[in-house]
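We now fix the convention by which a protein and its fold are recorded. These numbers are not coordinates but entries in a learned vocabulary of local backbone shapes. A record is reproduced here so that you can trace the correspondence yourselves:
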Amino acid sequence: MQPIGTAEKRYHDPAPSRASYRIQRLWLTPFIRAFTYFGLPLLAVAAAILWYGSDDARVDNLRTNITELRASIENRPEFMVNLMRIEDVSAEVAEDIREITAIDYPISSFELDLTEMRARIEELDAVAEAGLVVRAGVLDVVVLERVGKVVWRGREALELLDDGGHRVSAMSARQEYPDLPLIAGDAADLAVPEAMELFRISAPIADRVRGLLRVGERRWDLILDRNQRIMLPEIGAVAALERVLAMNEMNGLLALDLVAVDLRDGRRPTLRLSGDAMRNLRLENGQGAEFKEQTTTGDGSL
């Protein structure tokens, strides 16, 4: 028997209770932990948003506050653009740029769509490339302007083209650019690079060159003074012209009383003489009307 006055000793069982054990096992489940840490807060936020958005007055007030905050930021002095600066372009191009952009200054830089403005500026014929940037309240427009290299006489008007055949501007008279070479004919603008190479090669007789005529949208005639022309082939025009100029340098071919040097058939180049030259040749050779109006060499050379 236990002595009177002696308390009964109680021992604590270290093992968890069944409920505690189940809770601990449940907490170790990845889904439960993720839902507790992330799911519950998200649900709480979503519930708060739904509650706040259920009142139209509160939503309108929120929108008004956001709009006012945005406007207060966008209209700060450091974000305002007060003028446009365009450098290193002609006055006509600068005026065209200001006209198509049509900006009412001062304006917030947040209201400027620089990408759309750049696209509009590059639509100008005289602009090859454009760049826009805002610096210290100034909209800087950097433009790579096309440079006119050749005058094209089309069916209806004169146009100034760059060395790639792109239109730079319209012209009212040839005298506006008297020093630039002249091309003419349908689709001549599509073959400007070849034309520029032909003009470069013809530099030794540049004082006699009047221009290039595109024939049949496929080949060139080099027009000279004294109503002479060099009829170039569709393929190999540059080599053919070099050949004629070499002959001219050796024996003064183009100084003869010629109407045309026909190189369209590379196997049979032809010299076309003027009427007076033909009559003189007939008299000198005593052949009369039997003399042909075209003279060629049998070996295919001039």
User: Anything to note?
Assistant: The chain has two domains: 77-145, 151-295. The chain has a mean pLDDT of 83. The helical segments are 18-27, 30-53, 56-74, 91-101, 114-122, 192-201, 237-251, 275-285.
